[in-house]
Design a protein that fits this description.
There is one protein chain. By secondary structure, this protein is of the alpha/beta class. It has helices spanning 10-22, 47-57, 74-81, 92-106, 111-121, 150-156, 180-186, 197-206, 210-216, 237-240, 250-257, 274-279, 294-306, and strands at 3-7, 28-32, 38-40, 43-45, 127-130, 137-142, 147-149, 163-169, 189-192, 221-224, 227-228, 231-232, 263-267, 283-287. Strands 5-2-1-9-10-13-14 form a 7-stranded parallel β-sheet, sandwiched between helices. The protein has a 3-stranded antiparallel β-sheet with strand order 7-6-8. Helix 1 (10-22) runs parallel beside helix 2, helix 1 (10-22) crosses helix 13 and helix 4 packs antiparallel against helix 5 (111-121). The chain is globular, with a radius of gyration of 19 Å. Bound molecules: ligand FO1. Ligand FO1 binds next to helix 2 and helix 6.
Length: 307
């Protein structure tokens, strides 16, 4: 069975780790969010692509959710000597990834080729595609009218600022990376991972052609609600739903995804929302969606594959 997934960062990576343990990793394709990408001290960082790659390679720092386990902070220490204390912290091995990516980008190598080189070098059999080779960057406007690039909002200000607008700069001029539309068209099943619907899945859907291609495969499209009992297990997803005019619940997710997603996987605590979802012609699949341990992710993946 060929499975194509749409993925953001930490929550998606946890699920993907389970998925590739229940089917052949080479039969999985990940379409990753690049709206979080940022140039940090001149280095191009692709957080969500790296989190997925490092997780599937078995080297991610599970405690942080990002970066490489056991990495060191010598570069940061040297910068501190110069009075530089960055709010976005790059550790030494991770810097190696960003140096490679940045150097190849300067040589004109597309992000999709770069991402493929990195995942193959780390022994990842799963294909990982950026949503686009062109720059699409998430920009938020706070209720006080302040513009924030994604990492400023998310990391520097700890996603505490109330948000009025979310924009995906560059989306209109972007095209899906090579292989993205085919990965959706050819898959037996498409799974939208439990990522932030606005900040992680939103940028992917904003790339022209992707939402339409998903809609054409709607019966094969499954999404896992990132909200359980109206709350996100991590991050600001629940607080942001009103920005898109949706309620902060599994039903709100069904509203956001309903036009391209045939089945929404919701947690048992949200079973009461199932009835209303059928009004949207979205089939509810009720199961335990909380992944506390790798076995939970494997079980959740199996439930979806068996549905
Ligand atoms: N998140 C933080 O909260 N603080 C950091 O210093 C930080 C550094 C970092 C470096 C590389 C990387 O790939 C991710 C990093 N993240 C950090 C996480 C990142 O901001 C978010 O996880 C994603 O952008 C959202 O999924």
């Amino acid at each position: 069975m060929r499975v194509t997934t749409l993925a953001g960062g930490v929550g998606a990576a946890k699920f993907l780790k389970g998925l590739v343990e229940v089917i052949n990793p080479a039969d999985v394709t990940v379409i990753g969010n690049t709206g979080d990408d940022a140039v940090i001290h001149g280095l191009h960082v692709s957080p969500d692509l790296d989190i997925v790659t490092y997780t599937l390679a078995g080297v991610v720092d599970e405690a942080a959710g990002w970066g490489i386990r056991g990495d060191t902070a010598h570069a940061l220490g040297q910068m501190a000597l110069y009075g530089i204390e960055p709010w976005f912290r790059l550790h030494d091995r991770d810097i190696g990834t960003h140096l490679a990516r940045t150097g190849w980008l300067i040589e004109g190598v597309p992000l999709s080729e770069i991402t493929d080189r990195i995942r193959r070098a780390l022994g990842v059999e799963t294909q990982i595609l950026p949503m686009s080779d062109q720059a699409v960057r998430t920009r938020l406007v706070t209720k006080n009218g302040i513009e924030r690039q994604f990492q400023e909002y998310f990391v520097r200000f700890s996603h505490r600022e109330p948000v009025k607008e979310i924009h995906f700069d560059g989306a209109d001029a972007a095209t899906p990376a090579a292989g993205v539309l085919d990965a959706i068209g050819d898959a037996d099943r498409i799974i939208v991972c439990p990522s932030n619907p606005l900040l992680s899945i939103g940028p992917i859907l904003a790339v022209p052609g992707i939402r339409e291609t998903l809609r054409a495969r709607r019966p094969a499209v499954f999404a896992i609600s990132p909200l359980v009992g109206g709350q996100a297990l991590k991050g600001p997803a629940a607080e942001l739903m009103p920005v898109a005019g949706a309620e902060s619940s599994a039903f709100g997710i069904a509203n956001l995804y309903g036009n391209f997603c045939g089945t929404l996987v919701i947690d048992e605590v949200d079973a009461a929302h199932a009835a209303r979802m059928s009004l949207l012609d979205v089939r509810p699949l009720v199961t335990n969606t909380v992944m506390d341990a790798p076995a939970d992710a494997r079980r959740l993946a199996q439930v979806i594959l068996d549905a």
